Amino acid sequence: MRIDLHCHSTASDGTDTPAELVLGAAAAGLDVVALTDHDTTRGYAEAIAALPEGLTLVTGAELSCRVDGISMHMLAYLFDPEEPALLAERELVRDDRVPRARGMVAKLNELGVPVTWEQVERIAAGGSVGRPHVATALVELGVVPTVGDAFTEEWLADGGRAYVEKHETDPFEAIRLVKGAGGVAVFAHPAAAKRGRTVPESVIAELAAAGLDGIEVDHMDHDADARTRLRGLAEELGLLVTGSSDYHGSRKTVSLGEYTTDPEVYGEITRRATGAFPVPGTGGA
Question: Which residues contact 82 (CB under 8 A, 6 or more apart)?
Fold first, then answer.
């Protein structure tokens, strides 16, 4: 089995629609794909309707968190999307995304960059607006050559000249909420140092004690040394190890299925989840 547990669609900051994502996953030879848009479940219905036979969909979300001033992301799998407490927290985070993006536009204007809110809105195309949409605007304007080049201290990285904070969930609270909704919690790309400061291993140990299920190890932002270190940490803490593409369509160079999760780990994730079940494809609606 080939299993990719971290992918984004136009419901947040990917460039493929949910339907295009699942069809692309099948074409890439995947057996299981997870839809994990940022703080939203809006893409579920479209993905399920288009799900081809032979492909299984894992519903999820990537939750925006912050601990000790450090941003981090929590992958939540197979939770009940209508559970009130987790739903309310996701809505709180999403509601803060628009004023935050507008704030980044204002800061860029102060720096002499002629980006407009209308441009960012067009790029987001109704998705959950975020920094990648602002970064894409910078690419369109020729300010930076790629989206990744916008995530520096000069521009949009944490603490950068055009950075604006947003509401982010305490990760200990996120674990509690995900578990309360019957889901499974996995710390996304914990050693992605090029994105900014990373969470210390001592905090990961505390998160494990609080119920964290796993950590994402095989990821494009982790080099070989980081993967080896994280595998050792996962073994020490009794955490599951996942691998995922973190696919965003044309917004990143990584391909669907470039990094994958072991089938035994996937099986354990499905065994632990009680909020939802993986959806088998039946050929689409």
Answer: none
| The model's pTM | 0.87
Phi and psi at residue 179, to the nearest 5°: -65, -40
Residue 283: per-residue pLDDT: 65
Give which of 92, 87, 20 is closest to 52, Cα–Cα.
20
Give me the pLDDT at residue 195, please. 78
CA-based nearest residue to 65, from 43, 42, 93: 93
Beta-bridge mates of residue 27: none
Please give the C-alpha separations between residue 37 and each of 81, 148, 185, 207, 242, in angstroms, as whole numbers.
13, 19, 15, 22, 17
Q: In whole angstroms, what separates CA 25 from the centre of its chain?
A: 17
Measured CA to CA, the distance from residue 234 to residue 253 in angstroms comes to 27
DSSP state for residue 153 in the 8-state scheme? T
User: How would you classify the pairing of strands 32-35 and 56-67?
Assistant: parallel
Structure tokens at 216: 């994402």
- Residues 64-119 pLDDT 10s: 999 998 999 999 999 999 999 999 999 998 888 899 999 999 999 999 999 999 99
List own/partner pairs for 25-28 with CB under 8 A and 24 or more apart: 25/55, 25/256, 25/257, 26/52, 26/54, 26/55, 26/281, 28/255, 28/256, 28/257
